[in-house]
Amino acid sequence: MRYFLEIAYKGTHFHGFQEQEGVPTIQGEINKTLASLLGHQVDSVGSGRTDTGVHCLKQFMHFDTDKEISDKGNFIYRMNRILPSDILIKDIFPVREELSARFSANSRSYEYHITRVKNPFLNELAYFFPMPRLDVEKMIEATPILFHYTDFEAFSKVHTEVMHFICHIKKAEWKEEANGKLVFYITADRFLRGMVRAIVGTFLEVGCGRLSVQGFEQVIQSKDRRKAGRAVPPQGLYLVDVSYPSSIFM
Asked: So where's the catalytic machinery, residue-wise (predicted)?
């Protein structure tokens, strides 16, 4: 039988989501916990990868087992007792066996959090960027340009094993919040490795006056990662949602 897990985690002390030998990862910790409770090896599949230090408010993974999980409340309780405190199991539910946490997803949504004032309570949870004259209005002006393109090779890590660089961005916006907080929201059908952090880094080049709004568009047109801004640090990035067609759930 196939089950979906809904999870959340603080990624500070993990080497990303994907299981790797010899280092702590989100998937590795969850696989070990599932194996302990189910009595057999578990090879889970996640809805996607996150890098070292990246956080998650909502992600899914699936696994297969011959054992029926009849009391899901107790199973979630036992998993959360075993897992490190930075990983949370939010829900578990059966799905049809053809449903994949990775390939059945419609879209994924991220947020990037920036604090422009020093805040010890946001340490490891936001990027401290104390630029006094950041032109947020220019960054907002450049944002709609993303909707005019689908090829985002300029924002992809180089030497990645992908067949193409096509992504359809459905939402992208900046919001200024209280106490010097700045948040970038983005939703797309898929993301390239390092894409969100490179996009935010390039927006900051616009905000700092080192790149014009027209220059931002030219970066995308160039399809050259060297023309884009540097990738911002991982601690400000959050995977916040993964959506699926409702009709495919049991």
From this structure: 51 (nucleophile)
| 156 within 8 A of 193, measured Cβ to Cβ | yes
Domains of the chain with bracketed CATH? 2-103 (3.30.70.580), 107-241 (3.30.70.660)
Token couple for 215: 């220059």
Phi then psi dihedrals of residue 5, to 5 deg: -110, 135
pTM above 0.90, yes or no: yes
State which residues of the chain have pLDDT below 70.
247-250
d(C-alpha 228, C-alpha 205), whole Å = 9
- Binding residues, by number, are 110
Q: pLDDT tens digit string along 230-241?
A: 999 999 999 999
Residue 32, both tokens: 């070990």
Token pair for residue 36? 């302990």
Active site residues: 51
pLDDT number for residue 54: 97
Residue positions forming the annotated binding site for substrate:
110
Outline where 39-143 has alpha helix (H). 72-82, 136-142
Please give the helix or strand (H or E) that residue 124 lies within, else none.
none
